Here is the input.
Amino acid sequence: MRTIAIANQKGGVGKTTTAVNLATALAATGASVLLVDFDPQGNASTGLGLGRAERDPSAYDLLADPGRAAAAARPTMVPGLSVIPATQELAGAEVELVGEDNPTGRLRAALGPLAGFDWCFIDCPPSLGLLTLNGLVAADRVLIPLQAEFYALEGLSQLLKTVEQVKARSNPRLDLAGVVLTMFDRRNNLSEQVAQDVRAALGTRVFRTMIPRNVRLSEAPSHGLPALLYDLRCPGSEAYMALAREFREAA
Amino acid sequence: MRTIAIANQKGGVGKTTTAVNLATALAATGASVLLVDFDPQGNASTGLGLGRAERDPSAYDLLADPGRAAAAARPTMVPGLSVIPATQELAGAEVELVGEDNPTGRLRAALGPLAGFDWCFIDCPPSLGLLTLNGLVAADRVLIPLQAEFYALEGLSQLLKTVEQVKARSNPRLDLAGVVLTMFDRRNNLSEQVAQDVRAALGTRVFRTMIPRNVRLSEAPSHGLPALLYDLRCPGSEAYMALAREFREAA
Ligand SMILES: Nc1ncnc2c1ncn2[C@@H]1O[C@H](COP(=O)(O)OP(=O)(O)OP(=O)(O)O)[C@@H](O)[C@H]1O
Ligand SMILES: Nc1ncnc2c1ncn2[C@@H]1O[C@H](COP(=O)(O)OP(=O)(O)OP(=O)(O)O)[C@@H](O)[C@H]1O
Ligand SMILES: [Mg+2]
Ligand SMILES: [Mg+2]
Here is the structure.
């Protein structure tokens, strides 16, 4: 199993939308995929149709008892895609883990023994706290969704620095899978400008595929469906299928 | 001085854009305003033109030594608007304050003695952790920017619950100033649907003023300027001036 953390401390850049739709696109090619919702908001769980009452056990339970991962993973309406859901309880972990033994290695311990999955994606919350650090320590690669906006660009160097620190201190196998530009609007100079700046700085570490701004992507979660099931032909779904192809080639 | 926390754990909903532009609009009416950047990303500080080297002392220093608030507040290019800037160091506070004495009351202690300001706005990070809790404990009112999107709506009830808990346990004067709809796009059914749902649930606690999606609002920070100085006549600036009028009437 290869594990990919989807992280960016900037909020609202498309982490969850990327986690749900990239995982779905890979499952659609016949791979066996697990999505771990590691954000107390629980948006990825909602985006895959899980109600609040269908989240026991949840990701929070893995932190106290890593052996529960297999029991927490459950199938979704997408063939080949399972999910470990998140509840608000997960927010407590940021405080409860402080001072505990191995505070950033709990998720890695939980996912280690899991078998039967080709890929595992971890949707991280908008911060560089203990939940995201657990995601980075558990991962082989980190995928960074980047909204084509100025504030989002500002946080990128801090995020890359944190990835380097985690690689040096706790997880030597961690590398960057790549940066994917999201909510890209061709008509908007700012989008073009940010895309040029990021490609100039990071070169081939930026995926060629860009995810366009597409309202169908934001409508799908209100139906509890990934965009690929809600509207397979929309520009958003097509872009995530292209990203899945590019991602598999690069992996 | 009346203190307003701008909070929402959902990322990218327009907290910083609202903090910078509402504070600017109020200063433009002759009020004396302080903006506290309480997000380690430091976006509000950037949006008001402060470079990374101009942030000493910063909001982080207030947590260790509340007496430094007056020294940390500095003028901006907006007459009547001062800012206490944020640095990445602030992220450490989420861990350092755990187990300390009075972990959620540090900001309140720092802002209490400040004189000479009519209004104080606190830009909170996208989480319900110790930084946001410090903001809610220090505040008289909480203003909730809400993106007209499904995932943003999902988190609202958790946020309102947290506000009630803070009011019951640590800050009895805390009340909701209101919810302001942001990035509203009249052409998009989802926006209209979310706006209707929120008004049905919260009634007059939702501001009449809605902030439209307007690219000029996202361009302004790349020039280190609030939108009102970057482009006073754009729909975004006009909306924040209308919000400032409505906010003053309601206060
Ligand atoms: N390409 C897109 N086009 C249009 N809307 C999008 C797109 N990608 C995401 N969205 C919408 O934008 C909002 C933010 O996206 P999302 O919630 O996936 O970001 P996030 O980084 O996971 O946020 P958070 O930081 O809160 O976890 C959501 O309402 C989502 O539906
Ligand atoms: N009304 C608007 N129209 C267009 N763009 C907007 C609008 N409001 C905010 N933006 C842009 O959307 C992005 C998110 O806004 P902002 O950073 O203010 O949200 P936030 O809630 O403070 O995010 P975070 O959760 O990361 O702190 C920014 O790039 C900002 O420039
Ligand atoms: Mg998310
Ligand atoms: Mg912000």
Summary: The pocket of magnesium ion (ligand 4) is lined by residues B 15-16, 39, 43, 123 (CB under 6 Å). The CA atoms of residues 17 and 217 of chain B lie 7 Å apart.
